[in-house]
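pasting for ref
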Amino acid sequence: MNMKPFKPVFIALSILVSSFILYQSLSTKPPGRICFNQSCVMVETPHGREEMSRGLMYRESLAEGNGMLFVFEKEGFHRFWMKNMKFPIDMIWMDSGGQVVHIDRSVPPCRKEPCMIYQPDEKAMYVLEVVGNYTLRENIREGSSASLILP
């Protein structure tokens, strides 16, 4: 059996797969870390409007000790909703100094529109999303301080 016709296809497919793997390794951002006292969370930091809008949407779960940290250009009353979420989360708003200014605990997924909007009473620069009730288990409350180690 003559295998020559398959060789160009195999080479093209190999180049495509190698390019995808290289792209993924170059585009993957190393995780950051945020700590409250003895409790640390490994965080993803979405970049750009599309990644920030998507956030944790469509994910099946979030591992304990992991989270998503939204970093804004300036402090403000940044609003969030739970559209297309599949599990409850805690949302922790922090000011530019890393002090917790607002927490919404165990926020449930939005089951039908219009979805509820969550926002802080004070301006914040960071919003951390972690598994539901994490803040209760780790005794994180308004006034707590966080140290951020971002990539």
